[in-house]
């Protein structure tokens, strides 16, 4: 079980590469530029990883997407929750 | 309680990676874990530059790493090959290369890539910020 | 129509991702301070620099919004964004700060032609 | 199947574009030199590191091919590329150096699961 | 009339942005990572800029695409030709 | 004969931009043009680092720029704000910031962004490498 950390926009080639690598039990955390995924609830990874994909709250806030994420009912995590995820998942892979 | 290793591969002010890594490090410690070491590779080596002088209203990332080291005795290793290429060297490397100045000083240590693999072996978790 | 010696600064990078946005805006402000007419075109992720809700980012990361607000004082009043870019980012125009001029994607080549000088960030 | 303590190094960057490729391969070589079993997965632009015709680049830019040739000496003999990646780049397998193992895109998640350690470049 | 210099791959977001900005009389020079366009003669910009789009020869060679570009009958330029283009076109815009 | 200005915004060994810029500069001169100046901005400021020490079989980009300056008296300007943030400073800036060392020396000159806009005005062509 792997935690994938995406740092680039959901329409980037990097995001596509990550999506190819996600296994059935894996989780995804969206940080930095990747939080733009909050704007697009139709992004395929939202379906692919249902209930195991999260947005990093502080990066959402700094970019002005916090209320959009709330409107779109997307799951967010604080930095503390990020650490909790890395406790659960033995391996992490960062996509940048 | 777990041991975390951090791999930082982005430069301050050009990449958000060092900021994210630093905030993550504090959250790791706040949850009662330990940080076995931070390894700076690729453009991440610029985090160690003692000549970094950002505007006063911006965080000085080097100082923030040093503070982390001072408070929690966390090792700050910088890949020597990546550093030399990019204009970062310690006093002893400066002598070896016949340079008049240096810009990497303790607690940052220049070291080989083997240290990264050793960190990955030793830590329960290795998290990359790039 | 842009004045003959106008500078077009193209902004394509989002806040907090790199220093491209800040250094691009700095170039625009300095040109304006030197008395050159300056216009801005925001493309792709650059559009996010105009979101009115954005914050100051991680501790020590400066906010972009104060710089955007400063543009008007420097007589930089043309801030172009394309409707297609907004749609592509799933953003509506009222999420942006005041004073944005919406254009169509197909007007971009014309904008570039009109300006004597272009800097692309 | 990878051995229990094997390291998977993922290479996603092309030669001459940045130092990511070189520094990724360096990490693989050092791990192998330390006796760790190392396998390589090439994705996207990283596939281009395997083109047999590539040259040394601009004056002073080192070629990648000698490093690729060196992998075998370090017992790094699994170099995975997906057929879809090759198709996506419009490359045929015989444009690549010898000793590449072609897999399908859908095998990637399994590869990642099998390895205890992963470094992504 | 503008010379557009593309430095990133043809399937990147940067390439799309450039394609949006190309005017009817503009020319395009593909350098650095952009020379991967040699692999894909179906890339839309080849049609869009017919006879005004070029690959930088030395970047093709270093990446091993020179013979592919020849096979695909794509137009290449030496560094000297790059300078000649900038003589012809008053403005250049680099997309990176 | 035309005047060219070059804007370089990529770091050596992390971006191919400085290499491309340098080769372009030589081709410009070979065609009988002049180079009114080179401006280093964003990560391009790292081109000026006197502590850069790449492996011997790789081009030292700083030295290549200096050679260009020596042979053709081309001005090498470095944006001071971009430089200070990234750990590059001249002797006088080092004094001002209370630093013991410096890593930017002539022919590289730290200067304001105004110099870039002046270069753009003065040159017939401004070509960006980033």
TrEMBL record, chains B, F:
One of its GO terms (cellular component) is sulfurtransferase complex. The lineage of its organism: Bacteria, Pseudomonadati, Pseudomonadota, Gammaproteobacteria, Oceanospirillales. Its EC number is 2.8.1.-. GO terms for biological process: tRNA wobble position uridine thiolation. One of its GO terms (molecular function) is sulfur carrier activity. It comes from the Bacteria. It is found in: Cytoplasm. This is Sulfurtransferase DsrE. PANTHER family: PROTEIN YCHN, SULFURTRANSFERASE TUSD. Belongs to the DsrE/TusD family. It comes from Vreelandella titanicae.
């Amino acid at each position: 079980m792997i935690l994938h950390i995406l740092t680039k926009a959901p329409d980037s080639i990097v995001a596509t590469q990550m999506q190819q690598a996600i296994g059935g039990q894996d989780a995804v955390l969206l940080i930095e530029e990747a939080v733009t995924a909050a704007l697009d609830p139709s992004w395929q990874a939202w379906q692919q990883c249902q209930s195991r994909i999260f947005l990093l709250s502080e990066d959402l806030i700094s970019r002005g997407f916090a209320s959009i994420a709330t409107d779109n009912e997307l799951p967010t995590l604080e930095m503390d929750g990020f650490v909790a995820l890395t406790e659960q998942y033995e391996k992490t892979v960062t996509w940048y | 309680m777990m041991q975390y290793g951090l791999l930082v591969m982005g430069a301050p002010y050009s990449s958000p990676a060092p900021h994210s890594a630093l905030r993550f490090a504090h959250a790791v410690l706040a949850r009662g874990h330990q940080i076995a070491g931070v390894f700076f590779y690729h453009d991440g080596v610029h985090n160690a530059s003692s000549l970094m002088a950002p505007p006063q209203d911006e965080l000085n990332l080097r100082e923030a790493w040093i503070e982390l080291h001072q408070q929690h005795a966390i090792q700050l290793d910088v890949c020597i090959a990546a550093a030399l290429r990019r204009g970062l060297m310690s006093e002893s490397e400066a002598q070896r290369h016949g340079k008049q100045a240096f810009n990497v000083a303790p607690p940052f240590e220049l070291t080989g890539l083997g240290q990264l693999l050793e960190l990955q072996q030793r830590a329960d978790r290795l998290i990359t910020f790039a | 129509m842009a004045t003959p010696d106008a500078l077009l600064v193209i902004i394509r990078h989002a806040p907090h991702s790199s220093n491209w946005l800040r250094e691009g805006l700095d170039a625009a402000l300095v040109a304006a301070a030197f008395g050159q007419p300056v216009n801005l075109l925001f493309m792709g992720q650059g559009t996010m620099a105009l979101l009115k809700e954005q914050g100051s980012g991680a501790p020590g990361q400066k906010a972009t919004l104060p710089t955007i607000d400063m543009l008007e004082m420097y007589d930089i009043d043309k801030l172009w964004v394309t409707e297609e870019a907004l749609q592509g980012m799933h953003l509506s125009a009222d999420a942006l700060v005041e004073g944005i001029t919406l254009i169509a994607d197909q007007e971009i080549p014309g904008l570039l032609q009109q300006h004597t000088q272009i800097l692309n960030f």
